[in-house]
Amino acid sequence: MSALRVVIVDDEPLALDRMKALLGEVDGVEILAAASSGSDALQSIRELRPDLAILDVEMPKLDGFDIVEALLHHRAEPNSEPPLFCFVTAYPQFAPQAFDQGAVDFLCKPVRLPRLKQAIERAKAGVEGREAVARMRDLAAQLDVLRQRRTSGEDRSIWVPSRGEMVRLALSALQWIKAEGEYVRLHATTNSFLHRSSISAFCNDLESDGIVQVHRSYAVNRAHLKAIRGSRQGMRVVLQDGTELPVGRNYRKAVQALASKNGLAGSPAPNPSQIP
Fold first, then answer.
1. d(CA 221, CA 139)
2. Positions of CATH 2.40.50.1020 in the chain
């Protein structure tokens, strides 16, 4: 058969670059597009009509399942052949459970070359067997089940670079965030990580996970808040480990509302620590 035509989708630039490099090691693959958002992915898939779409499951706004759902309900031509789908997930427990629900494969991060080659071979077999329409129908029927399996009992996490590789950071371990140019420094319970994102975009994406911006340069995980305090220097938030961070003037009302909601107003504060 001719080369397998592929669109890859991941909101993490490093993960996207890694997938491009890995696919470059696989024979018989043509990368048509690499999209970093769900909306870009939809456009690329609709316009280019790939044989295979490799979709990151955990993405803001439109995730991998949302993309499938959108394609199912808004296909450009009812009789056009849809792509096969290979999902990439951060949850090793999720992939085996979800496999054979319509996707040609599920890959766990960090993706390894031998496993990717296996997924590509499955996709090639699916294209030759004209399985795409049947698989998309099966997948559409299982989307709600897959969403529930992904979120039930799982500690949400993100993938971040560390010493030349991608590691998973559980959001429950993330304490506070500091803006550093085009990056954010993620301070976790045992380590810190440099992640490529603006602080506003990072907070918007993880708002539902309790990440709250309190200053133009700082954000906190609501689960790690201990107290809100006021002084001549202004309002400050205090974390469980004693770290204190300033509250920006434009964020005071939001922080006060957060304090009332979480019963933090008037809580005693520990001795202040230095802000890096």
1. 35
2. 157-262
Residue 152's contacts (CB-CB under 8 Å, 6 or more residues apart) are: none
pLDDT tier at 180, thresholds 50, 70, 90? very high
Is residue 123 within a helix (H) or strand (E), and if so which, with residue range? helix 113-128
Q: Which residue has the tokens 């939809």?
A: 42
- Look at 42 and 135; give whichever has higher pLDDT: 42
User: Which residue spans of the chain are classified as CATH 3.40.50.2300?
Assistant: 4-151
Asked if residue 152 has pLDDT above 90, the reply is no
Q: CA geometry: angle at 267 spanning 265 and 271, to 5°?
A: 130
Asked if residues 128 and 1 have their Cβ atoms less than 8 Å apart, the reply is yes
CATH of domain 157-262: 2.40.50.1020
Q: How far apart are CA 54 and CA 107, in angstroms?
A: 9
Asked if residue 212 lies in contact with residue 261, where contact means CB atoms within 8 angstroms, the answer is no
10: its two tokens: 């991941």
Return the CATH architecture of domain 4-151. Answer: 3-Layer(aba) Sandwich (3.40)
**Residue 23 token pair:** 């696919």
